[in-house]
Design a protein that fits this description.
By secondary structure, the protein is α/β, with parallel strands linked by helices. It has a single domain, classed as Rossmann fold, CATH 3.40.50. The protein contains eight helices and five strands. It has a five-stranded parallel β-sheet, with helices on both faces. The chain is globular and about 55 Å long. It catalyses: 5-carboxyamino-1-(5-phospho-D-ribosyl)imidazole + H(+) = 5-amino-1-(5-phospho-D-ribosyl)imidazole-4-carboxylate. Keywords: Isomerase, Purine biosynthesis. It comes from Dichotomicrobium thermohalophilum. It holds the Pfam family AIRC.
């Protein structure tokens, strides 16, 4: 049995741990992270988990961290500045409300940053979307849809970026897309 399976089982089936981002060590040889998933707070994990789930489907190694642009600016600086040297190739950043995390991350790293607006209670994520999408020229953030669909597509876009230089991953992506297409019915049916 793989050494990590008991921990994984515990995380998946323990209601407290299932709601928390898995902490993936940066120095693990078996799964050196090439994608970073960062979020502004613990509550954002409910949305950002969708990006992790998509990356898991393609066996893309990733790390997850809570990095608040407002409450932990030094942590954000350290994370963004060290990302490329640590082997990351893409960063997925999700935040709600003022949602400055994706933009500030993009300002501090040359890596592609994919921004996910997390749905907020006050404005249903519209505030998050506008905070992420309205970047000044020269600081690029690839902005996705609000909420879980955006997080899923951020994971998919990260896979597509990585697949440009990874033939094996590109083949998995082609197979995944073909299967999704095959799963769509050609004619409607009655739901009786």
């Amino acid at each position: 049995m793989h050494a990590g399976l008991p921990v994984l089982y515990f995380r998946l089936f323990n209601p407290v741990w299932a709601s928390q981002p898995p902490h993936r060590e940066l120095d693990e040889d078996v799964s050196q992270a090439i994608v970073g998933i960062i979020m502004g707070s613990q509550s954002d994990w409910a949305t950002m988990r969708a990006a992790a789930n998509l990356l898991d489907q393609f066996a893309v190694p990733y790390e997850t961290r809570i990095v608040s642009a407002h409450r932990t600016p030094n942590r954000l600086y350290d994370y963004a500045q060290s990302a490329r040297d640590r082997g990351l190739k893409v960063i997925i950043a999700g935040a709600g409300g003022a949602a400055h995390l994706p933009g500030m991350t993009a300002a501090m790293t040359p890596l592609p940053v994919l921004g996910v607006p997390v749905k907020s209670a006050a404005l249903s994520g519209q505030d998050s979307l506008l905070s992420i999408v309205q970047m000044p020229a020269g600081v690029a953030v690839g902005t996705l849809a609000i909420g879980e669909a955006g997080a899923t597509n951020a994971g998919l876009l990260a896979v597509q970026i990585l697949a440009v230089e990874d033939g094996e991953l590109a083949a998995k992506l082609d197979e995944w897309r073909a299967q999704r297409s095959a799963d769509v019915a050609q004619t409607p049916t009655d739901d009786d």
